[in-house]
Amino acid sequence: MVANDDTAQGLHDALTNLIPWDGPVAPRAHLHTDAPALDLSGTWRFQLVDSPHDAPAGFTDPQFDDSDFVDLVVPSSWQMVDPAGNAPFGRPAYLNINYPIPVPASDEDIVVPNENPTGCYRHTFEVGQDFTSAERVLLRFEGVDSFARVWLNGIELGWTKGSRLTSEFDVTSQLRPGRNVLAVAVSQWSDGTFLEDQDMWRMSGIFREVTLLARPYGGIDDLFVHASWDGDAKLLIDGPEGATVTIPELELTTTCNTEVTIPAAQPWTAETLRLYDATVSTDTETVAVRIGFRTVAVDGDVITVNGEKIIFRGVNRHEWHPRTGRTLDEKTMRTDLELMKRHGVNAIRTSHYPPNARFLDLCDEYDVWVLLECDLETHGFEWGGWDGSPTGDRRWYDCLLNRIQRTVERDKNHPAIIGWSMGNESHCGEGIRLMNDWVKERDPSRFTHYEGDYAHAIVDVWTVMYPSMEWVEAVRDRTVMPGAGPAPQTGRERELPFFMCEFAHAMGNGPGELSAYEERCFDPHFHRDRMHGGFVWEWIDHGIDTGRGYAYGGDFGEVLHDSNFVCDGLVMPDRTPSPGLLEFAATMGAVRIEVDSEQLRDGTGITVTNRRDFSDLSDLEFTWQLVDDGEYVQAGVLAVGALAAHHTWTGTVPLPDEISDPMVVVVEAKLTADTLWASAGHVVARTSALLVPEPLPQPCLPASSQPRRDSSGWSLGPARFDRRGRLVTWGTASLVAAVLDLFRAPIDNDRASALARNNIGDAALAAGLDRLVHTTTSVHEDSGDLVVVTRSAAAAARNSMTTTWRWRAVQTDDGREGIHLDLHTDPHGHWPTMLGRIGVTIGLPAQWTTVSWFGLGPTENYPDSQHAAIWGRWDCDVADLQTPYVMPQENGLRQGIHELTIGGSSGGMRITADGSWPAFAIRPWTSQALMNAAHTWELEPDGHTWLTLDAISAPLGSTSCGPMPIMSHRLYAQPVDLSLTLSLV
Ligand code: IPT
Fold first, then answer.
1. Among 846, 828, 865, 852, which residue's Cα sits nearest to residue 740?
2. Where is the Beta galactosidase small chain/ domain (predicted)?
């Protein structure tokens, strides 16, 4: 063994010798066995030193006095112990592409720093005769980051690398009856670090389970289940000769290594949960396996399962918990799957490493497609043009093969896994080909994936990251790619199935444009086409809980970091669904309901489309409701029935003969029975449509009062304007005058970053959108109206917006006093900058915190993310209107506002829109304060309730790592009108 001596040199060699491991037994499946197993999780003794050379002398000796050591719970990452507090073992560091340590040049030997945090672990455990009488005993580590050297009772067992891969050491000859002392030295940096450059928090430790496994004489060390379906179920289990296979539910008994056809069995798919509990037994051991019969094939350029094309409505999933990092308990894993299933996610790419083995059992159980990725990323080599990247350097090939072998062998028996991915962002060389060849030989029953196979010479599918809409269209239409895409469509990629292994970067407020991707890449209309959907980047924000909010890169004093790029998920760090996840459910969900209010009276206004690939809709009940401004009118059930996959149903609901107020039709699809992931009644899909009376009732009548001028300004109805024509008093309340607003606190998709293909936010700031100066150029009375003209422009800028505010006293139809505003704004000069909004902002009293509106809600919505919102009457508090994105940014917009009331114990304002329906945001701080805060805990209410009403709002896009929004969605300066009535409440 290279590292068997205790000298510094010996240790150094093992850390960087490009040998994947020394000591572990051949990789094999994780099996659920009745053979004795001892979970070694719990409190261990621990000491952290600066370097492997500083490990306390003799700490591996069973007699060593470890009273200087401290307690540490295993599994855990030592940097996750109180990282925002006194951090006894250092803090995590967030990096995306950059390596956390210096990178060797391609003509150098591999070196890692001497300063190499090393955790010295000791754990004492007892075993009984069930272990000492076994044929063999294995010590299994499921995840140690990144290098572990292991001793039992003072005798070295060897060492291993591959942080998210299992290693099993044979401890038969070192294990003693009774007390045993395990010692492990874990170093953060090794040559493995160069293969593990995933975009995530960098930390280390024994972060997954450690187990002692007794292996009986004549036991079952490994199994390979081949369960296919081609109209009939076929089963072949590679295993010990003569071992008995039983599936009680199918009344089947057979033996390993014999293929049987089972006519009674049903197929497994990610929609039709059909797992069979089986056992495989020898005289001394019984193993439980769950079998799903399915056949994955690449049929021309289409991926099929059981002969049907499948669509990935997928997400990329890292393992994350805001308090325990990459150590996840089963409850958290179940929560992920339940949330995914509830929001229409049907596929997971395990970016960019194999997850905890237990998670894959749950994927079988909950029914999702899994693209299982190897623990491999060498992204930091990109900065040097990939020179020396391990996938093209033969010195590394054994390490690469070791990684893919451990990946496939551990997880090969899961029906949920339908494809193997070689890794992520590691360039492409011979190493990838060797990995792929090995997989195709070992397991030809699944497709292989590697996005970086840009020559399309190796793997079975063609995938891309973050394509533009035009790009996706070109793939779909088989035309030449616009711009400088990775490759023109001239080679083997023309023959391959296509999906987006990453798209719709869910960082901060977003992603927008999901429905545009959905139309192009997920539409079953292209049923036999090669478009297979994709996987949103990513599932969860990797924020770290500090007790007062979430930390991100840079909060722990890292030398290098990538800021909040680690918070780019569809769920918040605490797994609260973000508005982006609700939009995912509404656009990507396989059950589609569309309501066309114009056609309801023709009997065809409601369309239900079953976009599932296998199952009908008999698990759902479709209900409708007619609601009149919050008042329930009528409800019923739609006879959609057992609509088959890829079929459409058309129908309608009965409407009253006349509609006098805006009314809403809401149609919902609900589960009729409990499932593993939701209770009966859970809403799988919901949509609404607005029915408006024609002509629209006029909300107000002209009042007799005229603008009255006095020494300090103007009075008009319940309002006062100062001498510059600014609205400063409402009833008895003082206001911060309404001004034109073009600014939004940059969302992550507006902010320039290494990967963002935009500079929207910087351009907006350079143009001074956040610091417009508003100058009144005229105030006068015109036929009973107070007409105010303002010019809004930024210091140094020559371009401006001229706004005419035409105010008139009115009475509402229910007799309340008010004023009507007709606003028109016009750009002057050259406006190259994209705007955040074109609207007005006004400062209301801080005591006004109760909000009620008729429009789209209750969830936040934006022009390119509004499918989850429903028309209706919604009530809440100002605090509830804020979405706490980890990095503060524009949030909380609600569109389509017909009426909005905001008030408190003293007074309030009702705003009704006529003509076009504005959007609103209400916050206890300004957009400027939102921009300036780096964390949620830095936001403090400033003494006003700020109301913004947008005539037009900018889209969200997903430009933080993706294309610019579709041209027609972008918001540029243009003339707009707003027509509102403000009345007293
Ligand atoms: C892509 C990575 O594969 C993923 O891990 C993550 O970093 C994502 O970007 C951004 O959050 S790679 C990028 C160069 C497109």
1. 828
2. 715-983
Which residues' Cβ are closer than 6 Å to ligand 1?
A: 96, 199, 351-352, 424-425, 465-466, 502, 505, 537, 565, 568, 755, 961
Below-70 pLDDT ranges, the chain: 1-12, 482-489, 524-527, 630, 697-699, 753-757
Q: Where are the beta strands (DSSP E) in 28-80?
A: 32-33, 37-39, 42-49, 70-74
- CA dist 601 and 606 (Å) reads 10
In the chain, the domains with their CATH numbers are 7-215 (2.60.120.260), 224-295 (2.60.40.10), 297-588 (3.20.20.80), 592-690 (2.60.40.10), 713-984 (2.70.98.10)
| HEC profile of 196-220 | ECCCEEECCEECCCEEEEEECCCCC
| Atom number in ligand 1 closest to CA 465 | 15
Question: Cα–Cα distance between 285 and 266 in angstroms, integer?
Answer: 28
CA angle, residues 948, 953, 958, in degrees to nearest 5: 125
Pocket mutation for ligand 1, best pick of 94, 95, 96 (most atoms within 8 Å of C-beta) = 96
Single out the residue of 749, 805, 751, 813 nearest to residue 777, CA to CA: 805
What spacing in Å lies between the alpha carbon of 371 and ligand 1's midpoint?
17
Q: In the prediction, which pLDDT does 1 show?
A: 32
Query: Ligand 1 atom closest to Cα of 565?
Result: 11
Q: Note the residue count of the chain.
A: 985
Answer whether 200's CB lies under 8 Å from 411's CB. no
Give helix then strand counts, H and E, for the chain. Answer: 11, 62
Determine how many CB atoms are found less than 10 A away from the CB of residue 263. Answer: 8
Beta carbons of 260 and 235 less than 8 angstroms apart = yes
With contact defined as beta carbons under 8 Å apart, do 76 and 183 qualify?
Answer: no
Phi, psi of 27 (to 5 degrees): -65, 150
Q: What's residue 756's pLDDT?
A: 61
| Residue given tokens 């590394």 in the structure block | 396
Distance 97 CA to ligand 1 centre (A): 8
d(CA 254, CA 252): 7
Structure tokens that stand for 243 in this block: 């071992």
Pocket test for ligand 1, best of 97, 199, 426 (most atoms within 8 A of CB): 199
Question: What's the confidence (pLDDT) of residue 494?
Answer: 86
pLDDT tens readout for residues 371-386: 999 999 999 999 989 9
Q: How far apart are CA 893 and CA 363, in angstroms?
A: 35
* Contact criterion met (CB below 8 Å) for 922 and 841: no
- 963: nearest Cα among 745, 748, 749: 749
**Closest residue by CA, ligand 1 atom 6:** 199
At 911, which amino acid appears?
I
> Are the CB atoms for 727 and 738 separated by under 8 Å?
yes
Q: Whose CA is nearest to atom 9 of ligand 1?
A: 961
- Three-class DSSP category at 748: helix
CB-side neighbour CA atoms (13 Å) of 400: 28
The pair phi, psi for residue 394, each rounded to 5°, is -60, -20
Quick one: tokens of 617? 């809709």
Q: What angle do CA 876, 877, 882 make, to 5 degrees?
A: 100
Pairing mode, strands 178-187 and 118-127: antiparallel
User: What was the pLDDT predicted at 5?
Assistant: 46
Question: Number of C-alpha atoms within 13 angstroms, CB side, residue 292?
Answer: 28
- Whole-angstrom CA distances from 220 to 245, 281, 926 are 12, 8, 65
What is d(CA 873, CA 893) in angstroms, rounded to the nearest whole number? 15
Residues 6+ apart with CB under 8 A from 972: 831, 833, 834, 835
Q: How far apart are CA 331 and CA 583, in angstroms?
A: 25
Phi and psi dihedrals of 120, rounded to 5?
-100, 115
Structural contact between residues 117 and 53, judged by C-beta atoms closer than 8 angstroms: no
- 518/584 Cα distance (integer angstroms): 10
